[in-house]
Specification:
- The structure is a single chain.
- The protein is of the alpha/beta class.
- Among the domains are: 134 residues, 3-Layer(aba) Sandwich (Rossmann fold); 154 residues, Rossmann fold, CATH 3.40.50.
- It is 45% helix and 17% strand.
- Helix 2 packs parallel to helix 4.
- The longest helix is centred in the last third of the chain and has 26 residues.
- The chain starts with a helix and ends with a helix.
- The model has no long low-confidence stretch (mean pLDDT 97).
- The structure holds glutamic acid (GLU).
Amino acid sequence: MPTAVSEELNVYESAEARFEIAAEKLGLEQGLYRYMKYPEREITVYIPVALDSGQIAVFTGYRVLHSTVRGPGKGGVRFAPDVSIDEVRALAAWMTWKCAVVDIPFGGAKGGVICNPAKLSKSELERVTRRYTAALSDWLGPERDIPAPDIGTNDQIMAWIMDTYSMHVRQATTAVVTGKPLDLGGSQGRKEATGRGLMICCDKAISKLGLKRDSTRVIVQGFGNVGSEGSLLMHQAGYKIIGAADVNGAIYNENGLDIPKLYDWVYHQRRSLPEFAGGERTTAQEILFRSCDILVPAATENQITSQNAHRVDCKILCEGANGPTTAHADSIIEKKGIFVIPDILGNAGGVTVSYFEWVQDRQGFFWRESEVNERLQDVMEHSFDQVVRYAEAHSVNNRIAAYIVAIDRVARALKLRGFYA
Ligand code: GLU
């Protein structure tokens, strides 16, 4: 029997709860509702890999294709010890809604391998990646399903996926994966894209609330790709980043942290974030409850729950991670009058530039970074406006508005396609 807490922390339940509210408000027909609720395909693979010690380990991997209604499946691959099929299923559905919110022609998918990448050598990681890709090679492809980085994976892993897939289909196929290195058909601006997208949303939100960048205090939980690039860009743009955190802990400084130095400390000197000298030490959990103007949870799921949401003290909650707020916490955050930029909008900058990367790979013609950023800005601003306008016109919160905009787009495409029998 699932307890109330385990149910709250099950991301699939969280994703489903929002889908159900939005579908009901939209008056979605029962048949369409059922079609969209379930994924198209779930694959489990068992990946035998020879470790450096000579022993054979068998890893479990997943790829869930939630929807191909609006285009090929799109979504990252996560390498983490706590990956589960429920999590991958939720993340795949979120990718469908995310791509639809920003109106890019993809469906949704997600993959994961249960492993701890920090404990694997580079060559073990390469063998896990290649065997996982080989096992999925019939289902991946530029027109089928296109992976990208997520927690625990990076551009090198994308390069191995590209190479393995290309060997299987016997031709170099850069467009099978995004988030690749620049030398291998990657896009300018992809590395910063999720952080840039967050900042564009924050810019829109502060102007709505009558705040100015230089007096806006920001706390960012998470210093992986999204949190670190987002903090750096926001710091450069004039925001005051007063708190930062990663898995090891957090630092806080009410006068603002020197983010370029912190970035150098973590990424070039390879030191532990909470040991950085420029601030007071606290925990990655506690940093969420310090007073600020913008709180950016950019780490992982289930950070803001029904147990702690009352302690959140910000004006804007901009979600960089997927699913950082549980469905049970939504009403508490709403009652506090916090302006929410939900994950499927807030972190959609990453997949938007993944779309640009796929377009560039397919046309074999690459854009300047300024062109990528300009197009990203256009997509994010337009999507933000659509969601907020819908929320205001229909008196729903921003999260439900984002789901409604997305579900409506998928439903319209589905009706046009009809049902193949
Ligand atoms: N993993 C990222 C996300 O959750 C990026 C997905 C992509 O670029 O396909 O949005």
